[in-house]
Specification:
The complex is a heterodimer. In chain A, about 45% of the residues lie in helices and about 30% in strands. Chain A is of the alpha+beta class. In chain A, strands 1, 2, 3, 4, 5, 6 and 7 form a seven-stranded antiparallel β-sheet that branches. Chain B is globular. The longest helix of chain B is centred in the N-terminal third of the chain and has 13 residues. Classes of the chains: A alpha+beta, B alpha/beta. Chains A and B meet through helix 1, helix 4 and strand 4 of A and helix 1 and helix 4 of B.
């Protein structure tokens, strides 16, 4: 499954913008550590994540819909979600001690802002309409969240495009990851008007 | 007298952030709603001077809620605050009668200036 180079460039630009928006949201520099777009076999991708499966994370999952379709997932370790919450509330670090409604809401809002930024980027670059759905937040092991994400995003295909971006929030040295599964058919028609 | 404001956002952290900004700038946050349906109910009950409204929300979204509130009270002042920065959505909220549109993430000053402009609109320059 070949990935169109132009679409790859647009996706990478949207991730760059998402990184800038993440920095502004947290008021802490966020840089992209890893960015990849690849066609992957579903079982291999799931196995790879299952290998890291014992890490408890908070995940925010949603769908981008409209003129294109795409599955979105943002994950962060539960421990780092507490730091994110303090950064968003401009609290002294360490103020939020337990996961709960506030930290879930913080991760929901980060997912909302990042997915909104990606949607806006696609909308501007292709002159299309893309709207994110209401995010759902989970606390679970990474393997479980990721398999669910892959299962829902694959739509019974054997292989998918998987976009992966790892962000490092420099000030507090925490990592978080964002994944996208573009629905290939909905992206192919984007080549025509350009 | 302090202006009465209703905050509508499905993320409790955003409501908390907005409430902190508004209260520290002398506004009275009279209510909070987490979706468009609750927003209309609270609008009727609390009669706020201004509403801040998110767009992407469960059940009834912010654009639908904006239209419903303006159907109920054509003088309602509603500021949309959203991550959605797309031509079709902006056109829809402006056509529906939103007072202003603020993109997330925002600076505190942008919120305050938008509220002041909506509550106290300057007379338009009528020079021909």
């Amino acid at each position: 499954m070949e990935i169109n180079r132009f679409i790859e460039m647009v996706v990478k630009q949207s991730i760059d913008r998402a990184s800038q928006v993440l920095s502004k949201t947290l008021r802490a520099g966020a840089k992209i550590e890893l960015e990849s777009i690849s066609a992957v076999d579903i079982s291999q991708a799931t196995e790879r994540m299952m290998a890291e499966g014992d890490k408890e994370v908070m995940g925010c999952m949603l769908d981008l819909g409209g003129d294109i379709r795409c599955k979105f997932l943002f994950v962060i370790s539960s421990k780092d979600a507490l730091i994110f919450t303090d950064l968003m509330l401009r609290n002294k670090l360490g103020t939020t001690e337990k996961l709960g409604q506030v930290s879930e809401s913080a991760i929901q809002e980060v997912g909302n802002i990042l997915s909104g930024c990606i949607s806006n980027s696609f909308s501007k670059d292709f002159d299309i309409s893309v709207m994110p759905s209401v995010p759902i937040v989970f606390t679970d092991f990474l393997g479980g969240i990721f398999s669910n994400f892959i299962f829902e995003g694959s739509e019974q295909e054997d292989s998918i495009w998987l976009v992966q971006a790892k962000f490092l929030v420099v000030k507090v040295q925490i990592e978080c990851e964002m994944f996208l599964i573009p629905h290939t058919q909905s992206f192919f028609h984007l080549q025509n008007p350009i | 007298m302090k202006a009465k404001i209703l905050i509508v956002d499905d993320a409790s952290i955003m409501r908390k952030i907005l409430k902190n900004i508004l209260v520290s700038n002398g506004y009275d946050v009279v209510g909070e709603a987490s979706n468009g349906q609750e927003a209309l109910e609270l609008y009727k009950k609390l009669k706020p001077d201004l509403v801040t409204m998110d767009i992407v929300m469960p059940q009834v979204n912010g654009i639908q809620a904006l239209k419903t509130i303006l159907d109920y009270d054509k003088n309602a002042k509603v500021i949309m605050i959203s991550v959605i920065d797309q031509r079709h959505a902006l056109k829809e909220v402006i056509d529906a009668g939103a007072c202003d549109f603020i993109l997330k993430p925002f600076e505190n000053e942008r919120i305050i200036s938008a509220i002041e402009d909506c509550l106290h609109p300057k007379a338009k320059d009528t020079k021909e």
